[in-house]
Amino acid sequence: RLGLFLYDHLAPNMTLPRCKSLDFRTNSAGRPLNGTLARGFAYSDGWVQDSRLVVLNAMDAQARGADIRTRTRLVKARRVDGVWEAEIEDTRDGSRATLRARALVNAGGPWVSEVLRERAQVSSTKQVRLVKGSHIVVPRLFDGPQAYILQNPDKRIVFAIPYEQEFTLIGTTDVPWTQAPGHVEISPEEITYLCESVSRYFTRSVSPDDVVWSYAGVRPLYDDAAKNASAVTRDYVLDVDTQGDQAPMLSIFGGKITTYRRLAEHAIEKLQPFLPVLSAPGWTADRVLPGGDLGEGGFDAAVARLSARAPFLDAKSCWRLVRNYGSRAHDIVGDARSLADMGEQFGAGLSAREVEYLIASEWAQTTQDILWRRSRLGLHVTDEDAARLDAYLRARQPRAATAAS
Questions:
Q1: Which residue spans of the chain are classified as CATH 1.10.8.870?
Q2: In tens digits, what is the pLDDT along the chain, a chain of 405 residues?
Q3: Taking a C-beta distance cutoff of 8 angstroms, is the pair 322, 303 a contact?
Q4: Using CA atoms, how far apart are residues 118 and 76, in angstroms rounded to an integer?
Q5: Nearest CA among 386, 385, 321 for reference residue 358
Q6: CA-wise closest residue to 143 among 167, 121, 159
């Protein structure tokens, strides 16, 4: 109760509803629960699909002059004549190039220490501690837009969140991870733990057989020597290495989605002594990402406008297009006047026009890119739909190569 009181009063200008107490015996939020809990608290927050956030930031950076190179890895970097020389490799064809820069920012996430020590030969006492977090997706457990945060007997919390209209997302775990960060999977023990966590409180129990999809990742938390993985700080640490007076490398240890823009501005402040051109004050607080200019009335009004412009799209498709692309959903529809004008259909409302937009504007190349990394349509399409999309992408590759030449 005290925490939620502070939550309200630390953000006095917040437009979201303020916290309130709930009686689950009378409030509709209690209907999906099994009666174990009589009272709770409600507070409002925002949510984001992390993969969409990544690509939208890349699009925003490109619009401001950045050169975005996907499927590219850093081979090595070294200081030469007061600047950095970085050798990079295109993982699609193995071609390499050498770039020169006055400064490097090491935002390697779980690989930040590897970039420092192995790729750039920079020593540092700071390091990250990898903690695996896993999630499961099951058929929808409850109606309504609300999410539930539930505390387990081990004092950890687990959430159940409406997901992709037809599902519920359940997570997360905190498991120390000492293996390579690139290949992480949920364990059977974690699946059982998450199923038992929600079954403890909901009228509908969940078993591993109900899981339609799962995913796992590692959080690169700054290692503050905490004994318990759940207690490791979620804050970030920025470290600038100059080895005397040489070209700087800024390394980012830790960090999280909710403060990523403040982290970025803090990073720029760290680099200002070396790059005076970066002296402009922070400007991101009120800037929207590509497609975020929804117009008057917000999201619901934007969906209504798209539906009026493209009446041949069903309500679910309009909702999804605006949810994923915001105002840029209109760029996808373009001059289409019928569903046939949208091109080949690949299931769940995915059209050839949307595929071409993802390729042209969001660096998508593969079926996995489109169904999982730029969306979660993989949860909705059939294997046959995915196979047709794969065939479509393969068929267009010769055309793309000819156009590029």
A1: 298-404
A2: 788 888 787 777 777 888 899 999 999 999 999 999 999 999 888 888 999 999 999 999 999 999 999 999 999 999 999 999 999 999 999 999 999 999 999 999 999 999 999 999 998 888 889 999 999 999 999 999 999 999 999 999 999 999 999 999 999 999 999 998 988 999 999 999 999 999 999 999 999 999 999 999 999 988 876 666 666 666 899 999 998 889 999 999 998 888 899 999 999 999 999 987 766 678 888 899 999 999 999 999 999 999 999 999 999 999 999 999 999 999 999 999 999 999 999 999 999 999 999 999 999 999 999 999 999 999 999 999 999 999 999 998 876 555 544
A3: yes
A4: 8
A5: 321
A6: 167
Q: Give the SS3 label for residue 98.
A: strand
**The tokens of 244 are what?**
């005397």
CB 205, CB 158: distance < 8 Å = no
The CATH number given to 298-404 is 1.10.8.870
- Identity at 359, one-letter amino acid code: I
Q: Does domain 51-127+232-286 have CATH number 3.50.50.60?
A: yes
Helices (H), 137-284: 188-199, 260-271
Asked whether the beta carbons of 201 and 36 are under 8 A apart, the reply is yes
Amino acid code (one letter) for 153: P
Task: Give the SS3 label for residue 49.
Answer: coil
CB 216 within 8 A of CB 208: no
Does residue 172 have a cis bond before it (omega within 30 degrees)? yes
H helical segments located in 10-142: 50-63, 112-114
Helices (H) and strands (E) in the chain, counts: 11, 14
* Ranges in the chain annotated CATH 3.50.50.60: 51-127+232-286
Cα dist. 142→29, 77, 96, 301 in Å? 9, 51, 51, 26
C-alpha to C-alpha distance for 69 and 88, rounded to whole angstroms: 10
